[in-house]
Amino acid sequence: MNATTEPRADIPAFAAAVRTELSDLPADEVDDLLDGLEADLADQAEDSGEAFVLPDAATYAAELRAAAGLPERNGRAAKVPVRDRLERTRRAAATRIRSSRFGSQTLDLLVSLRPVWWIARGAAFYLLLVFLTVPFTGGVDYVPTNVVAWAILAALVLLSIQWGRGMWLPHRWGRGVRGVLNVVATIVAAIALIAAPTVLPQYFSSQAYANYAVAYPDNSQPGLVLDGQRVRNIFAYDAAGNPIKDVQLYTDQGTQLTTVGSEGLANGWWWDEYFLGGGGPVTSAYQGTGRSPLWNVFPLRESVGVSSWDVNSAIPVEPKEPFAHVPAVPAQPDPNPETSPAPSATPGADATTGTSPDATPAPEPTPVTEATP
Amino acid sequence: MDTTQLLKGVLDAAVLAVVQHEDAYGYDIVRRLRDAGLGEVGDASVYGTLRRLYSAGSLSSYVVPSDGGPHRKYYAINPQGRAALDAQREDWAAFSLALSTLLDASRKPAALRTIGEGR
């Protein structure tokens, strides 16, 4: 046969390629390893005939190294030894810890707590996402603020748990990604733990403030307040300075102007409970249509010295106004002279001021009549 | 079952066994292993193993020039190699007996000791 006398021409080239792959080893070592390789390959080629195909030189060299117990090539193959070395270190550490009863029990406890880490890792993935999206969201919300964020958090926790159970890792690179993310998640979890003492109180106080603000828009002093003092009653005087009764007041927003505010209205107060039991006069509401308390009619009627237990038997009376009479409203320059047939409507007011008969200091009746419908 | 994985652990014993009666060169040893039924053995693994056994002192080697072709490197077992082979033969006998017993489907399961029990 030709093959014995004429060895295949590609075998020396293959042997040279294998030698190159082993070039990091000492030369005499390589010589020992490859001595006879060409003859062996030639024999193999002869045995296999046409079916003989030279293997990949790099794979072949790696197999030679592994079987011969020689170190793997630095660089390209270095990745594997590092992982193996870590694994060996891990096993050695585990063996050392398990050599004592206490260490063994502690390790078992920690192993049984792994699901806790899986959930924490999922949360750390979420935080990582939060940190990374700061340029777009403009802030860090440690706790999800909307449904989408909650869904993302739930999905990441699920992913982490499945990874912990060894699922959802499609390929070998999946494990690599998990390894990298494990390290990152540990760092993020550490950062979150370090930040927790400052972030959590801030979060809860802001949360409490938010609740507070929603439930009590002006909790500092519900009701009608003037310079921080709760207003008990309001007394109206006409332009001449005489007290008038049953004045209905509204704000510019069209809401009833009351002393008890939203707190009293929402709770259906009949008595101004802010002053109840305080020893002073307590105002009570007028009875509106449908027996609902009407709080925007002034002056409110008052009872003196009522407490919460005798509130039903007390009979409110018309309060004594702070002044029996106040100075009349001085005449104002007429802002709109053309439309001044008004004087006839308020003859009393003009009679006292006198200086300018055309002046109409009677805007009071107008808002009252306007607001009544 | 992936027999290449199984083979890794016992390749030393297998290689020593095929040269215990007659010296052989690299590919000759591969051929003998395959003839013995270990068809999945890779030749590079065998050559690497030969090199390791030689370094460990279980084998000696000598070169035989061949006419017209590259020279051949023969391996021969030495006393140390025989001692190693004897030891591995005993280990294997004990191991294979244990595993065969374990895998024997007709045998009723006995109370097995847990690994690490009584530590």
How is the secondary structure organized here?
The complex is a heterodimer of chains A (373) and B (119).
Chain A lengths: L1 H4 L4 H12 L5 H8 L2 H12 L8 H12 L10 H20 L2 H12 L1 H19 L1 H4 L9 H18 L7 H44 L9 E2 L2 E2 L5 E2 L5 E2 L2 E2 L12 H6 L14 E4 L1 E2 L5 E2 L2 E2 L2 E4 L42 H7 L11 H7 L2
Antiparallel strand pairs in A: 1-2, 3-4, 5-9, 6-10, 7-8
Helix pairs in contact in A: 2-5, 6-7, 8-10, 8-11
Chain B lengths: L2 H16 L5 E2 H10 L7 H14 L2 E6 L7 E6 L1 H25 L16
Antiparallel strand pairs in B: 1-3, 2-3
At a glance:
Chain A has helices at 2-5, 10-21, 27-34, 37-48, 57-68, 79-98, 101-112, 114-132, 134-137, 147-164, 172-215, 261-266, 347-353, 365-371, and strands at residues 225-226, 229-230, 236-237, 243-244, 247-248, 281-284, 286-287, 293-294, 297-298, 301-304. Chain A is mostly helical.
**Cα-based radius of gyration of chain A, to the nearest Å:** 46 Å
Low-confidence stretches of chain A: 1-5, 75-79, 344-357, 359-373
Total strand segments of chain B: 3
Order of helices and strands of chain B: HEHHEEH
Distance between the termini of chain B: 33 Å
Shape estimate of chain B: elongated
Strands of the largest sheet of chain A, in order across it? 1-2
Number of distinct helices of chain A: 14
Describe the structure.
The complex is a heterodimer of chains A (373) and B (119). By secondary structure, chain A is mainly α. Helices cover 50% and strands 6% of the residues of chain A. Chain A has helices spanning 2-5, 10-21, 27-34, 37-48, 57-68, 79-98, 101-112, 114-132, 134-137, 147-164, 172-215, 261-266, 347-353, 365-371, and strands spanning 225-226, 229-230, 236-237, 243-244, 247-248, 281-284, 286-287, 293-294, 297-298, 301-304. In chain A, helix 8 (114-132) crosses helix 11. The radius of gyration of chain A is 46 Å and the shape is rod-shaped. The N and C termini of chain A lie far apart (122 Å). Chain B has helices at residues 3-18, 26-35, 43-56, 79-103, and strands at 24-25, 59-64, 72-77. With 119 residues, chain B is mostly helical. Chain B is elongated, with a radius of gyration of 18 Å. The interface between A and B is medium-sized, with 27 and 27 residues.
